[in-house]
Amino acid sequence: MLENTPFDPVATGRAVIRSTIAGSLATLDEAGNPFATLATMATMTDGRPIFSLSDLAVHTHNLKRDPRASVLLVAPGGETGNPLAGARITLVGTVERTDDEHAAWRYALHQGKAARASALPGFHHYVMNVVSSHLVAGFGNIAQVPAKDLILDLSDCKDLLDGEKMVVEHMNDDHADAIALYAIKLLGLPGGAWRMTGCDPEGIDIATSTQRARLPFPTRATTVGEAGGYLKSFAKQARSLEQ
């Protein structure tokens, strides 16, 4: 976070959730004690965390018995140096299995090659329904962000939801050069094999094998046309910075 940027708890919390690839998942064991493990994750279009969990894992057995859980997510860059200097958010809610194909698709895109394990027998996808959160984003920047503010309302976004997969696949297949320019010119990130991993009303998620990033839209997009217009505008802006 830039030093003079006003603290926006909702935007910061959403950015942390979208940009992480793993978190500390805490479930309740048979005696009711907290049991924390590391779990890879992605997000649904609305921002709810998705996990791929093995039927053999202790945390999976715990969730089947009691779906209550919390997960601690740390923004990229906060894992090294002073671990308390980075933005992090704790989400509290319930985690339940889903057979939603869109959840599987988004998880696979976000995790890349690491998602191969989720295709093995005995692995299933789980979604967290968030009920509360606790955000810490630097000294004095602490907030309880209500779930209704943290998780997107998609009730007016059917066109974009229906077309998200098409938008993402089209950009990755035909406009990989533009995605790389988004990362390098608009976000100031290193070059690499950047790909789009999601498109939602507030922006797009992009990734390489080692990095995750978020590029927000200027205003909310509810249709494929609106999102496409922003992507074209981003490309034009990025190319102008090349000159």
UniProtKB/TrEMBL annotation:
Record Pfam families: DUF2470, PNPOx_N
Superkingdom assignment: Bacteria
InterPro entries: DUF2470, Haem_oxidase_HugZ-like_sf, Pyridox_Oxase_N, Split_barrel_FMN-bd
Domain Pyridoxamine 5'-phosphate oxidase N-terminal: 14-108
Domain spans labelled DUF2470: 167-227
Entry protein name: HugZ family protein
